[in-house]
Amino acid sequence: MPKPIVDVAIAILIHRGKILVGWRGEQQHQGGKHEFPGGKFEQGETPEEACRREIYEEVGIGLKDWHQFDYIHHEYDDIIVNLHLFHSYVPDELLNLIHQPWTWYTRDQLVNLNFPKANKDIIKRLYWPHFIKISATLTLPENDEILVYWRSEKDNVSEDDLEKLALLDTNQLSKLIVNVDTWHKLKPDLKSRIRTVHLKQSQLMSLHKGDLEVGVRFIAACHDAVSLQHAQQIGCDAVFVSPVKVTETHPDAIALGWDRFADLIDKCQIPVFALGGMSPDDLATAQQYGAYGLAGIRNF
Hints:
The chain is an alpha/beta fold. It is 26% helix and 26% strand. The protein has helices at 47-59, 107-110, 120-126, 159-166, 170-173, 180-185, 188-193, 201-205, 225-234, 257-265, 283-288; strands at 5-15, 18-23, 34-35, 38-40, 67-75, 80-89, 103-105, 131-135, 147-150, 176-179, 196-199, 217-222, 238-241, 272-275, 293-296. It has an 8-stranded parallel barrel. Strands 1, 2, 3, 4, 5, 6 and 7 form a 7-stranded mixed sheet that branches. The model has no long low-confidence stretch (mean pLDDT 93).
């Protein structure tokens, strides 16, 4: 007998970097576990319509601006679920309307919660290590708590680089960030296994809502309030903000300093990585000023 197939709309609700999570009752399928808000489609609904309705009914807030986040097909022993995921930002003025017992969790806390197996890839995408090393050569970090942004130019990617990239397994590729131009140059199978894609500010500003590929994590370089706002409007997952301090690579660039950095990212809803003159020892200071993590070249 074939397993039943259920389509479910899931919302990733974000407020200042935190994610809204609830608890599934024991009587529910995959009960006794944490969950993101959402539920089954009603007849005739599109995935986004189902998501909007479920969030209004379950969470108690109405949100207009949604971004398509991912699509996950997962087969349990007794049922097949198709998860249609969207994300949206929750403004301050709606916080008091949220029904209990929904709870806001940091991304670090998410990895320690007990979610259904179908949510595994969602957690992987939402969680970011706190350090990103920027490298002009294709290298990999020695531990899982750092990502590497391979700062390549599409016209300078050698065949040796592509061969080396193709030899990496899925876990190794999950630690790598590549620029969107290089990413588009890759063969489809390899391209599909790259989890995180980088956008320069000029590339970011050329894109519109709906242009980002669904299911791929994007991090954008931002140097001002306009680009930072645009990154959120089109659905980026995280941003680099720079330069915080004067650097050897860009000695003529005007550094933000920590106070201006904090003012710039004050309303940002997604993880911000401080870049420019950073070292790992700056993490505590950066987080005091609102950063999620750090990125750098020489000291990482």
